[in-house]
Amino acid sequence: MYFMKDNLLMQRSGLLARKLGMTRVYDDAGNHIAVTVLDLQGCQVVAQKTPERDGYAALQLGSGEAKVKRVSKAERERFGKAGVTPKQKLVEFRVSPDNMIEVGAAMSAEHFVPGQKIDASGITVGKGFAGAMKRHNFGGLRATHGVSISHRSHGSTGQCQDPGRVFKGKKMAGHMGAVRRTLQNLTVARVDAEEGLVLVHGHVPGSKGAWIELRDAVKGVKATDLPMPGKFTMDAPKASKAKAAPAADAAASKGEEE
Predict the structure, then answer these.
(1) Structure confidence at residue 222 (pLDDT)
(2) Are 84 and 47 in contact (CB under 8 A)?
(3) What is the chain's percent helix, strand, coil content, to nearest 5?
């Protein structure tokens, strides 16, 4: 997020969360609103990028618990030096040098406040191979008057002898979805610091289980009452009850490691 404070341009870190699905909650007036539930899953600061060493200022955040046996030795050593458990997903967030957070800090859901505007980025749901009507909202060909079989085709895609080719980028049938998209100016409905959940009004890109990057909105009115450089603790994050692994699976994985 950017906002003017003492004539300086400030930028906070974002959060890395996993999409659990959608549900509904009720506001103070008794109206129900559709929200997307995002789980931080032990989001922690894994590394710092400094202008002196790396040429830019950023924080590398990790989320999700990865199996140790599936992590390379070099990565295990890196996580060990940071004092964090191996993470499934790592993402960098650009920050201003004044908003650095210590390595090993566990990010809290209260990093965002209810009513705040945020931007959510993720990989959209893959649709596979789709026709031009579904992929680009084409109208299709006529139902009669000489059209047979090709009612849902995209029609002509080029010209005659000159230039005699199809231009790059022409809207045609092809792979649909599974691309990175960002929804801007979403509203934070609620936060649950104890469970590590952020509830966002509306939908966000991605299917259930997708990784979502949350950042302060870059457009519109900027909030000025946000925690700086963020809301975090130096204690190890607790396992989320929403996606806690069954005890049987935990025992089995422990037996495999032994």
Answers:
(1) 78
(2) no
(3) 15, 35, 50
- Core vs surface per residue 20-53: b (16+ CB within 10 A) or e: beeeeeeeeeeeeeebbbbbbbbbbbbbbbeeee
Contact between 105 and 62 (Cβ < 8 Å): no
Q: What is the largest CA-CA distance in the chain?
A: 73
Q: What is the pLDDT of residue 9?
A: 58
Q: What Cα–Cα distance (Å) separates residue 34 from each residue in 18, 88, 143, 190, 203? A: 17, 28, 39, 12, 8
| C-alpha distances out from residue 37 to 20, 59, 224, 242, Å | 6, 24, 25, 10
CB of 99 closer than 8 Å to CB of 12: yes
pLDDT at 36 over 90: yes
**For the chain, percent of residues with pLDDT exceeding 90:** 76
Q: Where are the domains of the chain?
A: 2-125+178-257, 127-176
CA pair distance 46, 84, nearest whole angstrom: 7
Q: Enter the pTM of the model.
A: 0.81
Q: What are 177's two structure tokens?
A: 């979805």
| Fold of the domain built from segment(s) 2-125+178-257 | Elongation Factor Tu (Ef-tu); domain 3 (2.40.30)
Q: How far apart are CA 20 and CA 250, in angstroms?
A: 21
